[in-house]
Design goal:
Order of helices and strands: HEEEEEEEE
Number of strands: 8
Oligomer: single chain
Structural class: mainly beta
């Protein structure tokens, strides 16, 4: 059911983008961020990766990526929840869903994220389970 929802959402998004007069373009919302893995919890269907780091306009960010693997173990879907603590004492928050693929120890995750202020992002996260390196890039959707 989740796969059908994600596929339908993706189809709608691509279809609406090509129906518009202007070309589909994703500009970076901010510089990419190197994140630190704080924990990994494994389950029989996938697991959760918790990270933190400085993410420009979102401040000090804490994100949980909960992955559900397909039977092949090389792909699946995930949901992400994030909160950013800002210097002024406020928080930014966002949630998204997406898909991932794995090649060797490297997971590449793509998700659409809805922020609390109404902005929408395409996030690209790359996690290397061997080196524990995580990069998180944010592109403007709306």
């Amino acid at each position: 059911m989740k796969q059908l929802l994600i596929a339908t959402l993706g189809f709608w998004f691509v279809h609406s983008a090509f129906a518009a007069d202007d070309a589909l373009s994703f500009d970076k919302r901010q510089d990419g961020a190197a994140m630190t893995v704080t924990s990994v919890q494994l389950t029989d269907t996938g697991g959760t990766i918790n990270v933190e780091g400085e993410m420009g306009t979102y401040g000090r960010v804490y994100v949980s990526y909960t992955l559900t693997a397909r039977p092949d173990g090389k792909s699946g879907w995930f949901k992400g929840e994030g909160r950013g603590a800002l210097e002024d004492g406020s928080f930014a928050s966002g949630a998204g869903v997406g898909i991932y693929s794995r090649e060797g120890t490297v997971f590449t995750m793509h998700s659409f994220v809805n922020m609390q202020d109404g902005t929408q992002n395409l996030d690209v996260v790359i996690f290397d389970a061997f080196t524990r390196e995580v990069t998180h890039d944010v592109y403007v959707v709306q």
